[in-house]
Amino acid sequence: MPATVQRSVMHHGKRHKFRATAKDDSLEAFKEALSDLDRQVTAFVDGNKPKVARQKFRRK
User: Fold this and answer.
1) In 1-60, where does DSSP find H-type helix?
2) Is the pTM of this model over 0.85?
3) Has residue 14 been placed in a domain?
4) For residue 49, which of 8, 11, 6 has the smallest C-alpha distance?
């Protein structure tokens, strides 16, 4: 039975779940599923980053 890997990420107080299923029981397929899961999470996190850096002002 192919393995399913999952990871959850908190964003604005909500948990977002990501899943990836291996094609078969081989180790290579499992590694591919892990890398696919990592790509999904990275795309989600990078897509939700602020587009501009916040400016910090010093108090006088």
Assistant:
1) 27-47
2) no
3) yes
4) 11
